[in-house]
Design goal:
This protein has 175 residues and is of the alpha+beta class. The chain is built from seven helices and five strands, in the order H-H-H-H-E-E-H-H-E-H-E-E. It is flat and about 75 Å long.
């Protein structure tokens, strides 16, 4: 089937693809624009899947790497993500170097391993979003309670004037 340039332009405007790919997909779907859009979106969904790669999966893999230091008795002295140790190393080189030297001198077991049960980026995002939502709800509740208090408080201001012969005094009473 011949595909028109208008169909290709329409598909390209809806889904960010090249002319060649738009033409191929339209020809495979006999010029049906909706089927072509769905097919291309499904392909892009596979490409954007965080399990296949990308920044989130790279950070997840970095967070899985842990550094564990055990003493002679087998007690864990330090168990941190390797990224934290490296950042600390860059910021406080001599402190980390001294710590490693001390661990080596005291015959501690130093091990770098992959922890499959470590924190994931999506888990962090979810926890942060839940916390933000809780804060929003609490702050809205506090604001609403404050507004109700302000509307319920009725202040009655009376101005009384006592006029004596030469002395006149004004009193303001707030109840």
């Amino acid at each position: 089937m011949n595909v028109t340039l208008e169909q290709i332009d329409e598909l390209r405007s809806r889904v960010n693809v090249s002319y060649e790919e738009a033409k191929r997909v339209l020809e495979n779907n006999n010029g049906d624009l909706i089927k072509s859009i769905i097919e291309l979106e499904n392909k892009k969904g596979i490409k954007n899947n965080p399990k296949k790669g990308g920044f989130s999966s790279a950070v997840d893999k970095l967070l899985e790497l842990k550094l564990r230091i055990k003493n002679k008795n087998g007690d864990i002295i330090l168990n941190l993500p390797l990224v934290v140790v490296l950042i600390t190393f860059m910021m406080a080189f001599w402190v980390v170097a001294f710590g490693f030297l001390l661990a080596l001198i005291t015959s501690c077991d130093i091990k770098i391993y992959r922890d499959k049960n470590s924190i994931k980026v999506n888990g962090l995002k979810k926890n942060m979003q839940e916390t933000v939502d809780k804060i929003k709800v609490k702050s809205e509740k506090i604001i609403n309670e404050d507004e109700e208090l302000e509307s319920n408080v009725s202040e009655v201001v009376e101005v009384k004037t006592n006029s004596d012969d030469d002395n006149s005094t004004n009193e303001i009473i707030i109840e």
